Every structure is written in C-alpha cells, then in structure tokens.
Amino acid sequence: MPRLLEMILVGAKLITRADGGTLYTVNDDKKLSFEIVRTTSLGIAMGGTSNRRVQFKAISLYHRDGRPNNERVVAYSALNNATVNLPDVYDDQGTEFDFTGPRMFDQRMNYRTRSMLSVPMINHDGKTIGVIQLINKQDKQNSAVMEFDNNDVHLVKSLASQAAIALTNKRLVDDLKELFDSFIKTIATGIDEKSPYTGGHCRRVPELTLALAEAASRDNNRMKAFTLTNQKRYTLEVASWLHDCGKLSTPVHVVDKATKLETIHDRIHLIDTRFEVLKRDAEITKLTKLLESGSDNPEAEAIEKCYTEEIQALNEERDFIRHCNAGVESMAHELKDRVKKIATRTWRNCEGQVAPFFSEDELNNLLIHYGTLNAEERKIVNDHIVVTNKMLESMKFPENMKEVPEYAGGHHERMDGTGYPQGLTREQMSVPARVMAIADVFEALTAEDRPYKDGKKLSEALSILGRMKLQNHIDPDLFDIFIHEKVYLPYAREYMDPKLIDIEEPFEIPGYPFKMP
C-alpha cells in the first residue's frame, strides 16, 4: 500500500511539475492521515519507501462540536468532493480557508507556499477515500512558481480517479484477506472450544510450525534447497491453522475419551456398582447362613472367613479394573487374562435377572492394548485427517495458496510410509508438510490439557522425538535443526509449566548428539 500511494503522488507531481505534494487517506476516525509527503526543493521525503515516518498529526474532518472542518483546504476537498485550485494561499481574501498551517510551515522551513491544488480521490460509491494536494507548480524554464492551470486540474483528476480505483481494489483485497484470516481462526477456535482438553492446540501448532520452518529456511546445509518466502510462510500459516479442521466432525466423547470405558459418561461407575452388588450379595449370603445355623454354629468362623476373603477379592478386582480402565500402560497378556477371568462373574441386575458382569462392549474396551481408544474409535479419530483433506480440497484456494491441503493433510504421515491417511514417504512430502508433522507431535507431547495423559517433561518429549527420528517416523534433518537451533526452547518457556522444563541442552536423548554438516 505505501508503495502504491507513493507512485500516485510522485506521478501527480511529475505531470504538473509541482515542487511539493501530500497524499492523504481518510481513516476510520474520520480524519485525514498523512501517508506520503514530498517537497523536492527542501529535500523532504516522508512515508512510502523513504523509511521516514510521517510525523504530522492527522487532520480532523469535523470539529469537536460536530461541525465540518471546512476551514482547512484539504478537509474541505474531502468533505465536499470538491477540487480547490488556489493561485496564492497568502492572498486569502474572499475565502474562508485558514492558512495558519502553511504559514507556520513556511516560517519554520524558510519556504514560500504559493499555488495549491487539492483534488479528492473518489471511489465508485462516490465516497472520498483520500486527497491529493500539490504545492507550487514550477515553470519549466526558470522554476518560477506559477498557478495550476485547467489542464493540470484535468490530469490530476484523472489520476485521482484511477488512484481511487487502485486504492479501493487494494483495500478490498486486504479486507478479504483479513476476513479470510479471521474466518480460519474462528474455525480453529471452534475446534479448540469444542473440547476443553484440546483447547489451544490449533493456536499453538501454527506458532511452532512457523518457528521450525524459519529455522529450516536459515539452514544452508541440510535444507539449503528450502526457502521460506513471504507467500510460502503465509500459506503454511493458513495450513497450520486449518490442519485439524476435520475434527469438527469428530464426536466430542471420542476426542475427550479419558478412560477405556468412557462414552458419554465413564462406565467404570456402573462396574463399581456391580462390585457393590456382589459385595452385598456376599454379605447377605453370610448372614443367611449364620441365621440358618443358629447362634452355636461351629461353622460361623469359617463362614466369616469365607466372606472376608470374598470381599477382599472383590475389592482387589475392582481396583484392578479401575487401573486397567485408565489406559496408562500397555496391557500384558497376563493382565488381559485376569480381566477375562473377572468377566466370568455374574451379577443379578435390577430386574432380578442373572447377567454377565461385563457387557461385550465393556470387555472389549477393557482389553484395549494401549491407550483408551478401541479400534473403531481410533479409526474415527484418525478419520479427522481424511475429513480435513476433503474440506480443504473442496476449497477454491488461489494459485499462490494451492499447497494448503498438502501442507495440512500430511501431519500424520511418516517418513517410512507407515503413517496415515495416504501412507506417504519422505520423498512424497513437501518440507512444510514434514515441518508440521514435527510441530504437531511436539505440541501433543508437551500439552497438559489432554484427558488421557499428563504433559511430559521437556526431556521426555525430546527423547520421544529422537526415537521417532531413529525409527524414520519424522524427518531426520528437520529434527536435527529443531534441536540444533533450539526451536523447542522459546516454545517451552511460553507454553510449558516451568517445572517440566528440565533441560535446555538435550545431550542424552536418542538421535543426539550429532554433528551438523
């Protein structure tokens, strides 16, 4: 935008031979902002490509009491869509304009403002969006200051009209980009808010992704063929925000499944109740036997002992099932066998019917080998990336952003081709897609808001990444850069509990130390 505005003003000065000129734009506060200021004879160049910020205060279009500020020439032009052509601003008789500003400028700069031309920039809706103001037209022969003529007015009006179109189009593009950016961030926020346990994931992954991508772009050895241009950076940022958009279709109770028996609620409480029923049944059986045999029953001690042993066994089995339900460790065969043995118990339900202690679904979930998701639920979770790909591939991205689906859709792929959903290998994936895969894993490992695990220490997270490198699951070169450039450290300091940041130099982890080429 600054370069465009500068071209407009410089063009107007050139075709009219004006010594000075200022381009103003109307801002949201109903003020005229100084965008570009040029005075050739004084060597003044502010705004645009000059690297000098314009230091003048914006000019209000209205007074504090709401009256239009028609005393200032430039404000008058903007408010009334009017062109103002003055041969000499010092000869202000017969005008209502206030030239205090130009006089003060002249006194301070030892300058003499004479001729002035103010032309509004009017868009297609008939609304003034800016003003071009030119000062002191110079004679071609001797540089004497002269009045702007009708031809100058016509030319500057034509330029202002074209400039208004260009400026409006640029603002439209910027507004559409801002709308698009806010839209994708709204989607990401909706995904995060859908589950209190994954809140922030869609916001943290872009930050980590861009940090690693920038580090890779700086590397002149392993990633010397990769350059992160501004456009590629923006495309990657968009892809990072949208990488989990498919989770909009994933049921909340699956995403949030903290235990093996959890559906809409945790069914461990139903099983706790059944254990209590069995314990009361055991107590009733004991009391019944004691009543039937009378007070002098010699078997009373044996009956009491049998009851105590049964209660102890039920308590141990209940605690064991609770532990299995948490899914915090792999289920060894002997543990699965014990679950199956407990499943042979029966209990009497509320209808008085004898029923299996576990339903088939409960038993299958308790026998999950690792974690809390059964095969069907894991497929539902994994399918979020399939839905993500469908959603993104259906979007009409512009040509310079066509890589968004590929970048976002590869964060669960592995370098050896064992990932999902497409089983891509390293050679089939772009560098940005491989970058996002590492960022997604590291964020998940260090996140403290997951229902099925605690956030890991920094050393543990890096060790897991190191093993993934050795197993050819993540890109080895990007992992090396991730460690060597300490990409993890600023992120950890920002988002991890300080108690979990137990190292800064990861010397004793798999895949490290190594020597960068």
In words, what does this structure look like?
The chain has 517 residues and is an alpha+beta fold. It has 3 domains: 2-173, GAF domain (Beta-Lactamase); 196-249 and 382-500, Orthogonal Bundle (Hypothetical protein af1432), CATH 1.10.3210.10; 268-372. The protein has helices at 2-16, 73-80, 100-109, 150-194, 201-218, 230-242, 252-255, 268-293, 300-326, 333-342, 360-366, 375-394, 404-409, 431-446, 458-470, 476-484, 488-495; strands spanning 18-26, 31-39, 44-46, 59-60, 84-86, 116-122, 128-138, 145-146, 346-348, 354-356. The strands form 2 sheets. Strands 1, 2, 3, 4, 5, 6, 7 and 8 form an 8-stranded antiparallel beta sheet that branches. A hairpin with a 4-residue loop joins β1 and β2. It is elongated. It starts with a helix and ends in a 22-residue tail after the last helix. The model has no long low-confidence stretch (mean pLDDT 88).
**CATH arch. level architecture of the largest domain:** Orthogonal Bundle
H/I helix tally: 17
Poorly predicted segments: none
Overall 3D geometry? Answer: elongated
The number of distinct β-strands equals: 10
Pfam family, one: HD_5
Protein name: HD-GYP domain, c-di-GMP phosphodiesterase class II (Or its inactivated variant)
Organism: Mariprofundus aestuarium
InterPro entries: GAF, GAF-like_dom_sf, HD/PDEase_dom, HD_GYP_dom
Task: Write the topology of this structure.
Layout: H1 2-16, E1 18-26, E2 31-39, E3 44-46, E4 59-60, H2 73-80, E5 84-86, H3 100-109, E6 116-122, E7 128-138, E8 145-146, H4 150-194, H5 201-218, H6 230-242, H7 252-255, H8 268-293, H9 300-326, H10 333-342, E9 346-348, E10 354-356, H11 360-366, H12 375-394, H13 404-409, H14 431-446, H15 458-470, H16 476-484, H17 488-495
Antiparallel strand pairs: 1-2, 1-7, 2-3, 2-4, 5-6, 6-7, 7-8, 9-10
Helix pairs in contact: 1-4, 5-6, 5-14, 8-9, 14-15
